[in-house]
Amino acid sequence: MNTPFHLAFPVKDIESTRSFFGDLLGCEIGRSTEKWIDFNFFGHQLSAHVKPEELAQAHANIVDGKNVPVRHFGAILEWNQWHTLADKLKTHGTEFVIEPYIRFEGQVGEQATMFFLDPSGNALEFKAFKDTSQIFAK
């Protein structure tokens, strides 16, 4: 079992953050105040802190011909869980930075990936690997 990580990040407000991570992504809500809120982010602890002046400008690098946001975080899901989330986000009308697609199809490290923004403009990437033993494959 992997040890959970903790990530603190800035957001513009609590309510849109609670709705996005809690309602849309289904993350359990932990402790909160008017200035911060914790989430169980797929077994990891996220702490969203209201600090709009700290929000980053979106910068990207070209990867596989796509503009990948340099500053991003996310989770690696099980294959079917990723597809369920992708369908839910599409149904919800999520505007993707990079639409859900399969990278390295039929190759070592085959993975599903998608990028989208939270209401504060933080970029998230969700992945799934056909074979989880290849997460760190070269």
If you had to describe this structure to a student in words, what would you say it looks like?
This is Glyoxalase. It comes from Roseivirga echinicomitans. InterPro entries: Glyas_Bleomycin-R_OHBP_Dase (IPR029068), Glyas_Fos-R_dOase_dom (IPR004360), VOC_core (IPR037523). The protein is of the alpha+beta class and 138 residues long. The chain folds into two domains: 6-52, 2,3-Dihydroxybiphenyl 1,2-Dioxygenase, domain 1; 60-134, 2,3-Dihydroxybiphenyl 1,2-Dioxygenase, domain 1, CATH 3.10.180. 18% of the residues lie in helices and 43% in strands. The protein has helices at 14-24, 79-92, and strands spanning 6-11, 28-32, 36-41, 44-50, 60-63, 66-69, 72-77, 96-103, 111-117, 123-129. The protein has a four-stranded mixed β-sheet with strand order 1-4-3-2, covered by helices on one side. Strands 7-10-9-8 form a four-stranded mixed β-sheet. The radius of gyration is 15 Å and the shape is globular. It starts with 5 loop residues before the first strand and ends in a 9-residue tail after the last strand. The mean pLDDT is 94.
